[in-house]
Design goal:
The complex is a heterodimer of chains A (384) and B (587). By secondary structure, chain A is α/β, with parallel strands linked by helices. Helices cover 38% and strands 16% of the residues of chain A. Chain A folds into 2 domains: 4-153 and 285-348, 3-Layer(aba) Sandwich (D-Maltodextrin-Binding Protein, domain 2); 154-284 and 360-383, D-Maltodextrin-Binding Protein, domain 2 (3-Layer(aba) Sandwich), CATH 3.40.190. Chain A is built from 16 helices and 10 strands. In chain A, strands 1, 2, 3, 4, 5, 6, 7, 8, 9 and 10 form a 10-stranded mixed β-sheet that branches. In chain A, strand 1 (41-45), helix 4 (49-66) and strand 2 (71-75) form a beta-alpha-beta unit. In chain A, helix 4 runs antiparallel to helix 15 (312-318) and helix 9 (196-202) packs across helix 11 (218-229). Chain A starts with a helix and ends with a helix. Mean pLDDT of chain A is 88; it is low at 5-25. Chain B is mainly alpha-helical and 587 residues long. Chain B folds into 5 domains: 8-81, no CATH class; 89-157 and 307-352, no CATH class; 159-184 and 228-304, no CATH class; 185-226; 363-583, MetI-like (MetI-like fold, Orthogonal Bundle). Chain B has helices at 16-29, 42-81, 87-92, 94-100, 111-126, 130-138, 144-154, 160-169, 176-183, 186-208, 212-217, 231-236, 238-253, 266-277, 286-299, 307-315, 322-330, 338-343, 363-394, 397-412, 415-426, 431-438, 454-477, 482-490, 495-523, 527-532, 540-549, 554-578, and strands at 346-349, 352-355. In chain B, strand 1 (346-349) and strand 2 form a beta hairpin. In chain B, helix 1 crosses helix 2, helix 23 packs across helix 25 (495-523) and helix 24 (482-490) runs antiparallel to helix 25. The model of chain B is unreliable at 1-9 (pLDDT under 50). The chains are: A alpha/beta (384), B mainly alpha (587). The interface between A and B is large, with 35 and 39 residues.
Amino acid sequence: MMRLNGFLMGTAVLSLTAAGAVAQDGQTPESPVAGQPMANEMTIVSWGGAYQESQLKAYVEPYLEMHPEVSVTWDESSAEAVAGMRAQAEANNITWDLVDVTAADAMRLCDEGLAMEVDINEIAAPAPDGTEAEEDFGEDMLVSDCFIPQIAYSYTFGYRTGVEEWNGETPDDICDVFDLETFPGRRSLEKRPHNNMEWALMCDGVPQDEIYDVLETTEGQDRALAKLDTIKDQTVWWTSGADTPQLLADGEVVFGSTYNGRLFSLIAEQDQPVEMMWDAQSYDLDGWVIPAGLDEETLNRVKDFLWFATDTQRLADQAKYISYGPARDSSAPLVGQHAELGIEMAPHMPTNPENSENSFVQNYEWWADYRDDLDAKFQAWLAQ
Amino acid sequence: MSDAVHGPDQVTGATPDNVIRNADRAARSDDGPVLAADGRPLKQSLNRALRTQKLRALALIAPLLLFIIVTFIAPIADMLFRSVENEIVSETLPRTIVALEGWDGGGAPDEEVYRALAADLVVASELKNHTRVGSRLNYETTGISSLFRQTGRDVDEIGEIHADQFIELDPAWEEPATWVALMGDEGWIERQADWKDRKDAAEAEQEAAETRVERRALDFTEPEPRFRLSETAQQALPRTARIYAQFAQVIQAEESDSPTEEEPWNIVYQALYEDLSAGQGQGYEGRLSELVSEARDAVTGFEDQDIKTYFIEEIDEDWADPKIWGTIDAFSDRYTAGYFLSAIDMQLTPQGIEPQPEGQQIYGLLFQRTMFMSLTIMFSCILLGYPVAFLLSNLPLRTSNLLMILVLLPFWTSLLVRTSAWKVLLQEQGVINDILVWIGLVGDGNRLQLINNQTGTIIAMTHILLPFMILPLYSVMKTIPPQYVRAARSLGATPWTAFWRVYFPQSVPGIGAGCILVFILSIGYYITPELVGGTTGTFISNRIAYHISSSLNWGLAAALGSILLALVLVLYYLYDRIVGIDNVSLG
């Protein structure tokens, strides 16, 4: 398994020294483009909601304080980022300057030539101890030449507590999702094959390291769909990350997959009767891409901002607002308590060793190949 | 209110058109044409007078017309055109496609094809185009996307062996200047040298400038003259010249560098090896002639590289798979029916057109479902909207105005808000189910499943589209004189007969208008089915949206959209034939 498992190890043994480290705040060296002419306007595309808020608090506001002449426009279109960037490139009118996307989307944008290839060491500052950015992020994070990682998140399950029909049992295994006898009630799963197929095979007895080999074959795909068939009529299919938290809060479903940060805010911030089930969580990454074809002054501004926004301290700061793991090794020890609730963030991180025992990483390259095929199959299966 | 049937020919009065018609009639009935005062035929001079008027009218609507063409018709046409367009394959792999013409379809193709592919892919990977072709072909055959991505990483090593041997033979082969002399057009070489002189001068001046502002003002922005191949090179070393020209173009356009300063790609040396092995390279003079003939003599002793083996053994064994080659071959044309075939659950394979595998047929089902549900929604709108419109048009004004506001309020409310409200109402723990459980109609254990299925979509969309049925119905019913029904009743008709035989036929134009509005709106509906439709209540438009924003298969989205558009037009035509579009009234 990849380094992700251990890469937030530090958060588990967090101590008060973290607070000290925050106070000292090792000054990041000046960005390589400092002193060059820069545009003063920047359009940043992100996901909206709590995630965008964490970006705003952790590094956009501090950056604007340092550079009062700069103004930032937000565009909450990350969900359609790939289509948007393609349309802008075809119209030859690039209006976005910096775009927040998932790793899989970054890969496609890079493949299509829509995002700029970057040298990570020129874009991101070295760690405070002098480690180069490339090493600090590590190759597991740098999945594409265009991708500047920010956080690791995961798809995981939340379940309602106190469901009468469960007779006091609580789910702690991914296969409990498929167990309608012990855990009756509706589930919510994402309306695309990603993760669902993997989970289904896992619970159909396929060892984790063989999942993608099995899924390449027609028999393997049918096997996964057959497993999903067992819970199909008890499943609500979600398309937006906000669906599962809402469904859980309304009691429409008793079990549901979504991004771990959404569940964190449901549990910790909104205090709903919901618990996390971390078993077999599926990791994914999120980060920045720079659209290809920016003019030089805008590009300089974007680079200057990124140099600041992806440094060790800023990525650690972001984790104080949302329970996603910072992409740098060196940020891990600096993550402390939630900025407003004052609770320790470490136990809520997907990368916390206790949470990541049985985790897996989505195979982006595999999905890039099989997405179209499997999606057609999955949608046809859904429509039946 | 008069019963007279109006048509354009019956309009009387002094409109210019009528004058022409009258003149026409007069010309037909009399022997000679009617003449105007100046002796010309009346018709002709009237036409002339009218022409300015018509031009003026056209000028008045021209801005709107232009606006619609530019912002509406042209983008739609452009988008629909993507459903057949397929230039990317032939533009990115031109050599491969020519070389593949001789391939019989069985087994892996010959070495020649792999050599062409190597040259194409080196250029493509420098231009970052190989991954785009990869994604395009991956829509057809799974696995091509990563195959191309992987190949793009390794392909620049092809020809390294040749480059090394040429350079060992004579270090001059390493010099960019040698290649420029060998390949460049004389005129270009001169212009380039001239440009270089001016650039150096400008830079020297810039060095000398004192302030930053001055230095910026002295920036030399003129681009290098575009590289041109010499005639000699094209004839003497055709393969080399072709790939070198692409090299120079990439260096100049993509990397803003100069071919005079960059050593060519390895694949250029490989092309040179092939040209020289074939005995070419005549026509050079002086030093170049010596260099080329020396190399020509030496290549027989060079070690060659089996590119086919390299592709299959070093890059990926899939390159031996005839299915991959079949896909490239099948989609090599500039235009393809592939997207339309996919849109009707068929596929274009090297063996011809075949149906999609059983488990992947989805579009036929979705088209049927879209039609069926749109019709259901349309009929429920008639059922619910007709009585409301009837009430509205027959109640006293004060009451009906109040009712009208109740119809219009939801109409003015945001679509998203109304859909979300339905979510709250219809869900299992929602208001409707709670009430049903409370009054004891259904048990707590088996609450009704009203959302995330077809029922949810039909309920929510009927509500959302209801005003589009009520308003045209109301405006037609408002004009139906109440005396007719009263007369029928006084002549002995039962209330039902009076309604069915007298009132209803007069309200049909309103139903027609409402039906067209509701049906056409619902057939392309997207957001409501997406939110409340679950898996069984979604429309074809949800798939189109998916292909536009997620899978990026815009060609398929365009094909599905074209089919939907054609379907609507056909239905409109049928409707016109059966009901008659003249019988539709919007008020």
